[in-house]
Design a protein that fits this description.
With 508 residues, the chain is of the alpha/beta class. It folds into two domains: 187 residues, no CATH class; 244 residues, no CATH class. A seven-stranded mixed β-sheet has the order 14-11-20-19-18-17-15, covered by helices on one side. A five-stranded mixed β-sheet has the order 4-3-7-10-9, with helices on both faces. Strand 21 and strand 22 form a beta hairpin. The N terminus is likely disordered.
């Protein structure tokens, strides 16, 4: 089941009167706190959309799963290959439908999100779509090819909503309008003379007035392989990663429309229940002991910053700001999806079993090299209780920095690993959670550095992030050895000292 799937956007878009849209004719489900629901499944327990990272203000948008697997355009992928290989191409069309009111000039770009002024404008919408697609393609080495078709409609809102400042009503595009515009745009694309049978994702961008679906979220992705579609509202001026996030919900190596879910984080943050004071922010210990100490999965299901499916953003050097002198750096410098998400989208990438292959492993984005380490969690593993969807661990190469490269079609030699990340992964590979408890080994390792990033009594492994002249590596040791215990104790003490300084400073 696709549990919760909310969007992380820098600016929340809260409404003063959120009513559930009527989607009964399409058998679609809405829930105040869930945005991705598999067909014919019950809504999971609610998670507050007002959860925040400790030092990051995070707002919420949403994605939604509906419908059954259909025929037609999706056969284009189904018939091409049983299992995607490194040289296969996953091609699709993204129809970007921009909706304007008749009183709005699409060429103006100075709106501030009020009811009467325009928001993004034609140039901004086109740039945002291209930037997001470019960074998706770059992250996946050009294997996923997304052809953009732009469509514009000048239509008036058919609904209304109360204003926050008085009793007057403001124009509002309805859910029914969204459905119609998706249907019309999809028909226009698939019946055009140049349509080649590729799967079509339709993204409707409401850029003149509030939309009814914006009561739920700024962005909504409908995970329907027969009709994958996206709603985007610019009412609250969301940051530029919204399209990449929503498209990520739909990307799949064979079945477009059934893509990534959200990436959360299990960290070491612990607060005193009675006083609310911070007790612990970082800690090194076995995962079993950390869970006993109160470490838990963040209620904010977007907590991981290594992906736009969490709280991450697009590469800041690849800007859509019109004031940036035509994008001074036109090349993308880091992946926008996390290592386990990339492995889901590119299952051909080489992995090895961490429990059976001890020693140092240099992890690389290059096609012919080892990309990650995996290990299945036993049925009684502590992480299965802490992270309900956890089925296995993925140890992969995190990229936090930037490097210049003129080749925008492949990640080979482009993405340089800064650290080793550890992730819990669902059985189908679509939902992930970063396990990030340490303050060391996260980035900027120097030659000779080795820091503990994960320890597990049940798996009997110790995972270190290290660097030498050959680059960053993951080192796997048996936990019950003298060497492993010495390293664990050293980093446990070092991290405890650092944690005390941080906690004392925070509480004072």
């Amino acid at each position: 089941m696709y549990e919760h799937c909310k969007e992380v956007i820098a600016y929340p878009c809260a409404s003063d009167s959120a009513e559930t849209p009527d989607l009964s004719d399409d058998s679609e489900d809405f829930d105040d706190d869930s945005d991705c629901i598999e067909p014919d499944e019950q809504t999971p327990a609610s998670i507050s959309r007002r959860s925040f990272l400790w030092d990051f203000a995070v707002g919420v948008t949403a994605g939604l799963a509906v419908g059954a697997v259909g025929e037609g355009a999706v056969e284009y992928l189904y018939d091409r290959f049983e299992r995607i290989g490194p040289n296969d191409s996953v091609e699709m069309t993204l129809g970007v439908v921009a909706i304007y009111g008749s009183a709005i000039d699409p060429d103006s770009c100075d709106g501030n999100g009020t009811d009467s002024r325009r928001r993004w404008g034609r140039e901004h919408i086109e740039s945002a779509a291209q930037d997001n697609v470019d960074q998706i393609e770059q992250t996946l080495g050009g294997q996923y090819q997304i052809d953009i078709k732009h469509i514009e409609k000048v239509v008036e809102p058919e609904g209304a909503r109360p204003r926050k400042d008085d009793s007057d009503e403001a124009p509002m595009y309805t859910t029914d309008q969204f459905k119609r515009y998706v249907k019309e745009a999809r028909k226009q694309i698939t019946e055009s003379d140049d349509y080649d049978g590729k799967p079509v994702i339709t993204m409707v961008v409401f850029d003149s007035h509030y939309s009814e679906l914006s009561e739920k979220a700024i962005g909504i992705a409908y995970q329907d392989p027969d009709n994958p579609r996206i709603h985007i509202s610019t009412y609250c001026d969301p940051v530029g990663c919204a399209p990449a996030h929503e498209i990520g919900h739909l990307l799949n190596p064979r079945k477009i429309g059934k893509g990534l879910e959200h990436e959360g984080m299990l960290d070491a943050r612990v607060e005193d229940e009675s006083s609310g004071r911070l007790v612990q922010l970082y800690a090194i210990d076995t995962i079993q002991n950390l869970l006993k100490q109160g470490c838990a999965l963040e209620t904010n299901e977007y907590a991981s910053y290594h992906t736009v499916m969490g709280s991450g953003h697009l590469d800041s050097s690849y800007s859509i700001n019109e004031k940036d002198e035509l994008r001074r750096d036109p090349h993308i410098n880091r992946p926008i999806y996390s290592p386990p998400e990339i492995h889901f989208l590119q299952p051909w990438r080489k992995t090895v079993d961490a429990a059976e292959r001890l020693g140092a492993h240099f992890l690389s984005y290059e096609k012919d090299k080892t990309f990650g380490l995996t290990v299945e969690l036993p049925s009684d593993h502590a992480l299965r209780k802490a992270i309900p969807y956890a089925n296995s661990l993925f140890i992969g190469p995190n990229v936090d920095g930037f490097i210049a490269n003129n080749d925008k079609t492949t990640p080979e030699g482009l993405f340089v690993t800064d650290s080793i990340g550890v992730y819990a992964v669902s059985k189908d590979g679509r939902r992930t959670a970063e396990i990030n408890t340490a303050c060391f080994g996260m980035s900027n390792l120097e030659n000779g550095d080795e820091y503990v990033v994960y320890a597990d009594e049940q798996l009997n492994i110790l995972v270190l992030s290290g660097r030498n002249d050959s680059g960053v590596y993951a080192k796997i040791l048996e936990l019950d050895t003298d060497e492993a215990q010495m390293l664990l104790n050293k980093d446990r003490e070092k991290t405890a000292e650092r944690n005390k300084l941080i906690v004392d400073n925070h509480n004072t």
